[in-house]
Amino acid sequence: MIPTLAWTPDGVRFIDQTKLPLEESYVLASTYEQVADVIVTMVVRGAPAIGVSAAYGVALGVRGTTAKTAEEFAPEFERICARLAGTRPTAVNLFWAIDRMKGLFANLLDSGATLDQIKDRILAEAHAMYAEDIAACKAMGAFGGALLPQAGGVLTHCNAGALATCGYGTALGVIRSAVEQGKQIQVFADETRPFLQGARLTAWELMADHIPTTVICDNMAASIMRAGRIQAVVVGADRIAANGDVANKIGTYNVAILAHEHGIPFYVAAPWSTIDLATATGEGIPIEERPHVEVTHHGGKQLTPNGVGICNPAFDVTPAKYVTAIITERGVLRAPYDEALKAIEKTAK
Length: 349
Ligand code: MRU
Hints:
The chain is of the alpha/beta class. The chain folds into two domains: 134 residues, translation initiation factor eif-2b, domain 1 (Four Helix Bundle (Hemerythrin (Met), subunit A), Up-down Bundle), CATH 1.20.120; 203 residues, 3-Layer(aba) Sandwich (Rossmann fold), CATH 3.40.50. The protein is built from eleven helices and 16 strands.
């Protein structure tokens, strides 16, 4: 199994995703500040992985306190949560995880729990989120794998795999499951400029699983679709609004329009922790602007003339009308998504 993040007695161990695929090295975060740093620097990235990392960050923050009582610790708990919440704005899984920890902490305070009990319960909750994430990926895989063709090309954008989750992956979980069902899938991985999650990470983890994979530059998708080599698209998501609009890695919107134009199904695989029913449409989703050096430089080399204008939004929003289905661990949703999401929310309560 790909060791995206793992709890150890010394802290959380992350595979360094900035170094893959050329170097497999690890970073140990033993404080919540260090967890915040690995999220900001994208040592760990991908919506579900960010959420669970933040949960472990909270656990490290509680473990590291010098407060003597739960009441004394309460304002520090708020600061820990705020630091972790300030790392990346788009993936709602981050806020989902922190809110879940805040709710648990409030309940424990109300019930008179000691600080030691709180430390144990918060860590246990982070472990539960970790296990739930893998289970959700497996469930999405089973639902989504059935939607893929018996044989054919499947295009994916960015990395929505084991590296973006606690294991197995969302979009790549769907592909893995289809392959496990005996389907002959040829993956086309968009390189995903500028951070190259597709070329570096998706290609690396699919090759480790011996799943046939071809990396293409982002601007090649249209002609490859037109050539009839893509039978389905499956991507992950960072946040899905109540109307089904999908925020995902920049360039996903392009792929969705191309898929629509070529009559190719466009599937989004995402766990319930990625659904944000409090945000009505994609218009309300905050889009992270990343450092411009990611565009101006590559491998330490400058690509662009000094002083040229640069923009580097890390995500875009695909309107719900381009989404053929949303694959969640609770089932496969079809338009109209506002109704489908509300209905599935009710069934889970
Ligand atoms: O900037 P990143 O690498 O964190 O962006 C990741 C994505 O956009 C993924 O597609 C998304 O988080 C889904 S991961 C299961």
